[in-house]
Specification:
- The protein is α+β, with helices and mostly antiparallel strands.
- It has a single domain, classed as Roll (Thiol Ester Dehydrase, Chain A), CATH 3.10.129.10.
- The protein contains 3 helices and 6 strands, in the order H-H-E-E-H-E-E-E-E.
- It has a 6-stranded antiparallel sheet with strand order 1-2-4-5-6-3.
- The radius of gyration is 15 Å and the shape is globular.
């Protein structure tokens, strides 16, 4: 029995993680400590520390930081699925459910496509704690627009 070859969703081949992280220098992404950590044929992952940059005054992970993490990893994934010379992506709807508090460590977000269309993309993002517990579940809709 032969294995079916995997099909990658990436337009220009496997993502260059170092390049993605370098492009975030000087942005909110870098200020929050978000880094792209891994890519597979159909997913992109990013990590974010749970520290003074990302917690609310009560000492738990801020929902806005989780939303920024979800939008970051899904937006990077989205742009990697199109011809970046011809198209851009822009978030048009973000929904996030927070299901568990986190006080320390890191959270890991995994973005997987639910729909990759010509004019829209829909991404599911699951955010997990260091122990693997689900922290938040998100869905991001991106518009695919012509580059200018």
């Amino acid at each position: 029995m032969t294995e079916k070859p995997s099909t990658s969703i990436w337009h220009a081949g496997p993502p260059d993680i170092d390049s993605l992280n370098a492009r975030s220098d000087g942005s909110m992404v870098a200020a929050l400590g978000i880094t792209i950590t891994r890519a597979g044929d159909d997913f992109l992952e990013a990590a974010m520390p749970v520290d003074e940059r990302t917690v609310q005054p009560f000492g738990i992970l801020h929902g806005g930081a989780s939303a920024a993490l979800a939008e970051t990893v899904a937006s990077w994934a989205g742009i990697l699925c199109v011809d970046a010379d011809r198209f851009r992506v822009s978030g048009i709807a973000l929904d996030i459910n927070h299901v568990r508090a986190v006080r320390s460590g890191h959270v890991l977000a995994t973005a997987r496509p639910l729909h990759l269309g010509r004019s829209t993309q829909v991404w599911e993002v699951r955010i997990r704690s260091d122990s693997g517990a689900l922290v938040a579940a998100s869905r991001l809709t991106l518009a695919v627009i012509p580059a200018r």
